Structure to design on (366 residues):
């Protein structure tokens, strides 16, 4: 049997790191990924489509999204199985409960594994999160009660995977690889972790369309071919057309805003899609560094996101301290304060000098 497995699309995600226009584009890209997933299912002639949760964001979904999903899955000439996760948990007000799904769509609604026979001798066990947090592990006290090949579909955290997954992930519905075989399952298709992984007993497809900068790994839809003895062969198919890149831009030695723009443009010249540029280095005190001035610096990109990194100002404190001015006295007073450590002393000096110079730019002090 051939299955298409995906997870963690997060339709209607707010994309707080992006401005309103870019966030709307990113949400459109998420929908496009779902459309491509459906196309891949048809092209590959899979026997069923499985979603392992976080298909959408419960707090942000719209009626339009509900109709988009209903129409997308209704066009598939094959069954679709949906296992709600912690972001799209099942409840009376969830999208899952409100949509009149076509007959080919099945939503797992219980917070314990329930069986569905995909073919003679092949059972899919699925479960749903019924709340946004505190869901127990679905494999706790679970034992397969039948022969043949048994697969599971749910949203959960394989415990050994926490060390290689993205920071801040809460271990919802935890399980271990050892539990999979011990309870009689042949394989688990899971969502929640966004970094793709192919374990011996479990598979994480990863989010198919970029949600954040810094995401790594071959992600998309997983084409899983299940053998007669429960062996699973996996092949990943990319369904995103968005490139996401990060670049560091060294501004050391620049003295004016034009040089800032030129260095950023040079750094991203050969890139496409979404790029996040982090500015670092030591700049001349005269430099006016403003992130807002760089938003249109690379019109060939879908979006350029610029942030201030370890960017410092190259003040000559010793020379400035010799001035018989308010500025000179300020520096002498700060330098004489024995209670300050060097990092704090520098921050105070730079912040004060920027204020005395009437600078209102966005340069952060390090």
């Amino acid at each position: 049997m051939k299955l298409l497995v995906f997870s963690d699309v997060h339709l209607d995600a707010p994309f707080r790191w992006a401005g309103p226009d870019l966030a709307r584009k990113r949400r459109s890209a998420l929908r496009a990924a779902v459309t491509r997933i459906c196309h891949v299912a048809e092209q590959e002639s899979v026997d069923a489509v499985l979603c392992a949760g976080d298909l959408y964001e419960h707090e942000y979904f719209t009626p339009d999204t509900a109709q988009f999903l209903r129409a997308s899955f209704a066009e598939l000439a094959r069954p679709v199985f949906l296992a709600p996760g912690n972001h799209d948990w099942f409840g009376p007000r969830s999208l899952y409960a409100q949509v009149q799904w076509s007959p080919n769509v099945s939503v797992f609604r219980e917070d314990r594994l329930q069986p569905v026979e995909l073919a003679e001798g092949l059972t899919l066990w699925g479960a749903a999160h019924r709340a946004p947090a505190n869901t127990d592990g679905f494999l706790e006290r679970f034992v397969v009660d039948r022969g043949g090949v048994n697969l599971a579909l749910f949203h959960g955290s394989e415990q050994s995977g926490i060390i290689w997954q993205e920071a801040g992930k809460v271990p919802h519905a935890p399980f271990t690889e050892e539990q999979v075989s011990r309870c009689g399952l042949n394989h688990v298709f899971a969502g929640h972790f966004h970094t793709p992984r192919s374990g011996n007993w479990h598979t994480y497809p990863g989010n198919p369309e970029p949600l954040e900068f810094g995401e790594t790994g071959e992600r998309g839809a997983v084409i899983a071919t299940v053998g007669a003895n429960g062996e699973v062969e996996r092949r990943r198919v990319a369904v995103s057309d968005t490139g996401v890149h990060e670049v560091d831009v060294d501004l050391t030695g620049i003295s004016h805003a034009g040089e800032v723009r030129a260095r950023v443009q040079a750094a991203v010249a050969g890139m496409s899609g979404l790029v996040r540029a982090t500015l670092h280095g030591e700049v001349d005190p005269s430099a006016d560094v403003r992130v807002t001035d760089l938003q249109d610096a690379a019109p060939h990109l879908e979006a350029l996101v610029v942030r201030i990194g370890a960017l410092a100002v190259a003040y000559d404190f010793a020379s400035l301290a010799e001035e018989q001015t308010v500025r000179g006295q300020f520096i002498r007073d700060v330098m004489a304060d024995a209670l300050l450590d060097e990092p704090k002393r520098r921050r105070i000096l730079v912040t004060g000098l920027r204020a005395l110079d009437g600078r209102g730019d966005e340069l952060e002090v390090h």
Notes: The helical segments are 20-43, 63-74, 95-98, 177-182, 257-268, 317-321, 326-336, 342-356. The longest helix spans residues 20-43. The mean pLDDT is 93.
